[in-house]
Amino acid sequence: MAGVILRRLSLGFALAGGAIVLVLIAMSLVSLVGRKLFSAPIPGDIEVLQMAIAVAVTAFLPLCEMTDNHIRVDLVAGFLPAPVNRALLAIGHLLLAAAAGLMGWRTFLLMQNSQDYGSTSTMLGVPLWWPQGLMVPSLALLALCGLYRAAREIRS
Amino acid sequence: DDSVTLRIEHFLPANSNAQQNVIEPWCEDMKAASDGRIQCEIYPSMQLGGTPGQLADMARNGVVDVVWTALGYSAGRFPRSEALELPFVLPAGGETASRIIWDYSTTYAKDDFKDYKVLAVYSDGGGTLHTARKAVRDLDDMKGLRVRASTRLASRFLTSVGATPVSMPPSQIADTLSKGVIDGALAVWEVVPPTKLDETTFHHTTTGPDQATTTVTTLAMLMNQQRYQSLPDDLKKIVDEYSGEALTVRFGKAWDQAIDQVRNRIAGDDAHTIITLDDAAYQAMLDASQSVVDDWVASDDGGLDRQALFDGLRKTVKEYTPELAR
Amino acid sequence: MSGLETGLLVLAVLMGLLALRVHVGIGMFLAGILCYVLVNHGNLNALLFTINNLVYARVSDYDLAVIPLFVLMGQFAIHGGLSRALFRAASAFIGHWRGGLAMSAAGACAGFGAICGSSLATAATMSQVALPELEKHHYPNKLAAGTIAAGGTLGILIPPSVPLIVYAVLTQESIGKLFVAAIIPGLVAMLGYLIVIRLVAMRTMRDAPRIPKAEWGARLRALAEVSPVLVVFLVVIFGIYGGWANLTEAASIGAGACGLFAVARGGMRGDGLVKSLIGTAEASAMIYLVVIGADLLNSGLALSRMPVELANWVQASGMAPFAVLLSILVIYLLLGCVMDSLSMILLTVPIFYPIVVGLPFFDLTQTEISIWFGIIALMVVEIGLITPPMGMNLFIVQKFSERTSLGAVSRGIVPFLGADLVRITLLVAVPALSLMLLSL
Ligand code: NA
Ligand code: NA
C-alpha cells in the first residue's frame, strides 16, 4: 500500500518536473526569437530558468530512488551472500533517507531565511523562498522513498 | 596559542584584482602587525560552495569568517544600500565614491549591516557603456540597443533610457558581443580585460569629470560578527586599524589604479574611441532616468523612509563632491 | 592532522562506503560531512549552514541546467526512432562490407552521440536497435556486444557530453569551447572503433555471408531520414560556439527539434512523451544526486587545503610534468574499473586540475592546458565505462542480449580498449588534435 502511494507520488513529481522542463524549453525559444527578431528578450529569463529548473530537478529525485536507479558501485555484490547484500542495501537506502531528510530540513531553513530577509532574484525581484519552498516536498518524498526501499530490503 | 586564521571566500578567480591587489596585501599587513597571529586562508571561485548571492549569508552564519561580494547579488538583503546604485547619483571612480559610500553605509544605511562586522563597502567605479559597432553620443543613440547589465538597477536605468537590458553570465559576454547578439555592455573599466571587452567593443561612452556616473555596483567585505567579537582585544584593534574606512579607501585606490591602467591603454589604441557625454546628452539621460529614482523612492517595500534615505545620500554626495552636476 | 592527511583519510572512508554499496552521491555527501567535522574539530555550525545552501546552489546552477535539456533531446530522439534511422542509413552505405553491420552500428552510435549527451542512453538504444540485427546476421557474440558497448561511449566522446558540461562547471571553462575541442577526438574515437571492427571481422568472419549492397536510391532515402540529426547537431554546436544562441537556447532548440521530429516522423504520441519525460527524470536525477554530494565533498576537501597542499607538493617534488600526467591517467584507469564516469570527474577534477594547470606542457597556455586536460580526462573516464568488473556499458549490453554473458562482453571489449589506449596516447602527444578547431 505504502509502496503504491509512494510510487504514484514520485511518478507525479517526476512528470510535474518534466512539464516544467517543457515549459522552459518553450520559454528559451520564445526568448531567442524575441531577441533575434524584435530585439526584445524575455527580461530575467536566466533567473526564471534557474529557479524553475531547481524545482524540476529536485522533483526528479524521488522516482529514481523508487526505481532504485541512483548510482552505486556494486563491486562486491557478486562475492557476498544474499542476506549480507540485502543488509548492505538496506543500510545504503537508510543513509540516503537520512541525507535526504537532512537536506530537506536545511533547505526548509534556507527558505525561512530567504523569507525573513526578503531575498529576491536579482533582475525580476521574485522571492527566492518560492522555488526553495517548492523543493522541500521533493526532498521529503525522497527521504520517504529511501525508507521504503530500506524496509523492502529488510523484509524480503 | 591565541592566533587566528580567517577564512575568506569570494566569487572571482585567484588572480583577480580584488584578491591580488587588496585582499592578499591586506592579510599580509595584518599578519605583520600581529606578529603572525592573524592569518588568512583565501578561497576564490566559491570553493567552499554556495552561490555568489549566498555569500553575505555565509558570513552572517559563520560558514566562513569573511566574504567579499557585491551587495546587489543578494537582492533584497541590503535595501537601504540600493540607493547607492540609482542612476547618476555618485561620482565615477573608486576612491571618492567609496568614501561617500562608506559614510552613507555607516550612517543612513547602517541597519542594513547590523548582523555583520563591516570591513569595507565601496564603489566599483561606475559603469561605462562599451559598444561594439555603434558609437553612443546622446540619448537617441541608446534606443533599441541591447546591452548586458549585471544589477537590477542597471537594468532599470537602461530601460529608462530606451535600451534593452540583457542578463547573462560574464563568461558569455565576449562571444555574444562578437556575434552581434548584444550590442554592448554596461561595465566598469576594471572588468574590461577579464571579460575581453577590449577585444569585442570599440566605442566607450563615459561621463565627464563633473558629471555623476551612470550606475555603480556596490562591493563589500563583510565579517562574521561573533567571530570578530571572539578575537582577543589586541587583534580586534589590529583588524579595526586595517579595516573600515582604511580598507574602503584601499579598495577604492586599487580600483582607481586598475581603471586608469585599462582606460589609458584603450585611449592610446587607435582601434578604440572614448566618448565623453556632452552636457546636453548628459542632462537628457539624467532626465530620462529620473523615473528610476522616483520609482525607487515611491516603493514601499520593507517599510523604509526611502525619501529620507535618498536625501541623506544626496547630502553626503554634496559634502564630498560639491561640483558634481545633478 | 595536515590537510593532505585529512583529505586522504576522507577519500579512504569514501572508498570504503562505496565498496559497501552506499549510493555514490550519498557516500560523497557523508565523506564531505566527515571532512567538515575533522577540519572544524567537531564544530557543526559551518557544516550545517553549508548544507542550507548546498542543494539550491547546485540545482539552480545555470550551466548544469542544460543537462536535463540534453537528456530530453536524446529521449525524444530515441522515441522518435532516430536511432533506428541512423543504423539503417549507416548500413545502407557500409553494411555490405566485411563486418559492415557492426561498423554501421558504431557509426550510428557516433551519429546518435551527436544529439545525445549520455553514453548510457546511447548504449541502451543501440543495444535495442542494432543487437538483434547483428545476431540475425550471425555476427559473433563477442564482436556484436563489444561494438555496442564501445560504441555507446561515443555518446559522451562526441559532443554534447554531460561529463564535459560538469568539467566545465567545475573548472569555470567554456562549455562551447570544450564541445568544439571534443569533435576531432570524438571522430578519432569512432575511426579507431571502425578499424578494430574491421580487423576483428577479417579474423573471425572470413567465411560469413554478407548482406547485399544497397541501391543509391535507398541510400539517399535513408540519408534523408537522418538529416535532422545533422541539422540539430550543427545548430547546437555552432549555435553555442558561434555565440548566436546561448547554451540553454541551443539545447532547447535541439530538444524542441527532436521532439517535433519524434511527433511528426516517429509517430510519438502521449505515452511516448510520458516515457521521454520519465527517462529524462531518472537520468537527470542520477546525475544531480552525485553532483550535490560531490559539491559537499569538494568544499570539504577545499576547506582541508588538501588540493592546494597536493599541488604544492607535486610542484616541489620536481617530478617531470609528463610523469605527473601519466600517474594521474593511471589513477583514472584504476578508478575507472570500479566507478562511473561522472562520479570520477566530480571526485577527481577538483584535486587533479590545480596540479595539471600549474605544470608546463609543450608550450601551451593555461587555457589550452585546461581544455586539453578536459578532453584527455573525458577520454580516460570514458574507458571506465567499458572496463570490467564495473563497466556500465557492459551491463547495459548484457541486459539487452539474452545469449551474451557478461564474460563474453568483457572479452569482446578488449580490442576496443586497445584502440582507446592508442587514442589517448595520441591525444596526449598531440594537443593540436584537441585545440586545432578552436584556433580556426
Ligand atoms: Na554526445
Ligand atoms: Na569500469
From TrEMBL, chain A:
Tripartite ATP-independent periplasmic transporters DctQ component domain sequence ranges: 25-155
Main location class: membrane
Pfam family, one: DctQ
Membrane topology: Multi-pass membrane protein
Function: Part of the tripartite ATP-independent periplasmic (TRAP) transport system.
Subunit (UniProt): The complex comprises the extracytoplasmic solute receptor protein and the two transmembrane proteins.
Name used for this protein in its record: TRAP transporter small permease protein
Species of the source: Alloalcanivorax profundimaris
Automatic annotation (TrEMBL), chain C:
InterPro entries: DctM (IPR010656), TRAP_DctM (IPR004681)
Membrane topology value: Multi-pass membrane protein
Source organism superkingdom: Bacteria
Pfam families: DctM
Complex formation: The complex comprises the extracytoplasmic solute receptor protein and the two transmembrane proteins.
Family: Belongs to the TRAP transporter large permease family.
Described function: Part of the tripartite ATP-independent periplasmic (TRAP) transport system.
PANTHER family named among the record's database cross-references: C4-DICARBOXYLATE TRAP TRANSPORTER LARGE PERMEASE PROTEIN DCTM, SIALIC ACID TRAP TRANSPORTER PERMEASE PROTEIN SIAT-RELATED
Protein name (database record): TRAP transporter large permease protein
Lineage per the UniProt record: Bacteria, Pseudomonadati, Pseudomonadota, Gammaproteobacteria, Oceanospirillales
